Amino acid sequence: MWFRLGWIRTIHSANHLLSCYSTIPKLAGRTQGLGFFSGPRKNKTLALSHPKKAGVVLFIGGVQFAIGMILAEIYFPGYNVSTNYISDLGAYCPSLSLRGITGPCTILQPSSDIFTTSTIILGILLLAGAYFIQKSFAWKPATSLIAITGIGTLGIGFFPETTGEVHVIFSFITFLFAGLSALVTYRLQKPPLSYLSVVLGAVTLVAVFLIAGSIYLGLGAGGMERMVVYPVLLWFIGFGAHLMGLEDSPKI
After folding, report:
1. Could you tell me what percentage of the chain is helix, strand and coil, using 3-state DSSP and rounding each to the nearest 5?
2. For residue 124, with 0-12 CB atoms within 10 Å meaning exposed, 13-18 middle and 19 or more buried, which class applies?
3. Which of 104, 143, 150, 235 could pair with 126 as two cysteines, CB 3.0-4.6 Å apart?
4. pLDDT, tens digit (0-9, with 9 covering 90-100), for 10-26
């Protein structure tokens, strides 16, 4: 009798021990990251994928230019967003052909340095963004347009209004190809951003041809130029944020 009871207690204890042991994997999963039963940890890399790199540089480029433009306007005495071109922040030349008036050029600091620096940084980051977009999607129509926009932006920075028609040409290249970039890259984005990309690009292109024809619709030359710049600037920031959220191997 006592012999049987002893075996029964032994079997019961063994079953209890096995049931406790079976909970260890569950505990290991619940305590992952706390140091208990977690086993060796895998090294996590901080390297970004090409789409994320493209997104980072486009986002930073757009944001820093927007901030730089606002700061330059603040430090420019009497600056008027309706009558002054954006490029006046780098060098104000009343004799610029599109303005229709004459007078000597004026460079005001620190507005000029802030605007010129932020413009050059934007151009460099647009070129870097084009490179990483090509690495990500291998689609030359989009990367070519963004790269040309970056080159035009660098031209605006290195050739201010004091260079006359050279500055005007670089400005037109930048505005035109920025609008086309927003249109063409719709296929690299998902709705509703892809739809907004088309709308913003179209607004920029319409404004480009209006300002080229000196049609300002009551906004003034500076106001119409902002209808060119603001839509694509917002698009670059939004597109950059979109790319940062993509998976490592996006498909188009």
Report:
1. 70, 0, 30
2. middle
3. 150
4. 445 545 544 554 554 44
Say if 159 falls within a structural domain: yes
- The SS3 of residue 80 is coil
Q: How far is residue 169's CA from residue 155's CA, in Å, rounded to a whole number? A: 9
Count CB-CB contacts under 10 A for residue 214. Answer: 11
Q: Are 181 and 216 members of one domain? A: yes
- On whether the CB atoms of residues 115 and 69 are closer than 8 A, the answer is yes
C-alpha to C-alpha distance for 190 and 59, rounded to whole angstroms = 17
Among 135, 170, 144, 175, smallest CA distance to 156 is for 170
The model carries a pTM of: 0.79
SS3 249: coil
Domain that holds residue 58: 50-244
